[in-house]
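Final report, results section. Input specification for complex C-07:
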Amino acid sequence: MIIVLKPNLPKADENLVLKEIRRLGYKPHIMRGVARTVIGAIGDEAQHPSLESLRVLPQVESVTPVQKRFKLVSREAHPQDSTIRVGKDVVIGGPEVVVMAGPCSVESETQLMTTAEAVAKAGAKILRGGAYKPRTSPYEFQGLGVKGLKLLAKARKATGLPVITELLSEDHVDQVAEYADILQIGARNAQNFQLLIAAAKTGLPILLKRGLSMKIEEWLLAGEYVLAHGNRHVLFCERGIRTFETYTRNTLDLAAVPIVKKESHLPVVIDPSQGGGRADLVAAMCKGAVAMGADSLLIEVHPNPKEAWSDGAQQLSLEGFSKLMGELKPLIAAVGRK
Ligand code: PEP
Ligand code: MN
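Structure output:
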């Protein structure tokens, strides 16, 4: 930690700060300038109280961490891109831009099978579908639960597509892990650390959505929980953040793509469906995401969006999805990917 003292501080005040640093269990190193003194405090923050408390001292101007708070997710820890294998032969984070697609919610066998077959045919590599849905109102469709998971397994068998589905609670970890190839942690649970730890322990890849009001550092630290508990298979998924804008449901933060790619070795996924809340924006957002270096796209697709049980306004039709996949092809090639 770097502690900058207020200018022209009497020696007695300087000593007071040094004493406090030692009391907290750290070793101070002093650098004296013309008007100001800077102190480097050395020690293991996990074993001692935080030096942040020094901020309240009247002698202290600023307290700045030297190291990033996230370690295992950081590119410093692992300079090469990490790749994450899903199922037998899908790899995210490599040369291929992997498209995950499917309905917001699993509604019925016909709805899921029709969608799964259509998205597979159009080139999607992973099937999405919510069995447990985090709905804003308790009176809205909450998902089919285990019946939905069984339908996802059936669709995987029929199409060969691995499955991603959301996990809402620690109580469901074992059940969802039995059916899913990727566990989705939703925006509303992105800082539910006990859930992240329980999900990490399954060893399955974890797609971690960015929380509605989460800073990028907080999102990376949430991912750090998963790695710190022995699971290095994390996908960071930007899905829009809450802003004052009302034209869109959320504001998709595409700058998060190069930022997370720079800060972390882990793959970045863009969800343009929750990102804008509007089907008419999905294609443009996907194109922007590919151009900015996203490793994967998570797209909601429904055979009849107007009759969807959740998120109807943002889901693409089967034809819309197939058209989008055709449009993405040259763009993906133009950025040097497959
Ligand atoms: C979803 O993917 O359908 C969903 C609910 O996502 P989010 O957690 O990003 O809102
Ligand atoms: Mn949805």
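The mean pLDDT is 96. The CA atoms of residues 204 and 262 lie 24 Å apart. This concludes the modelling results for the funded period.
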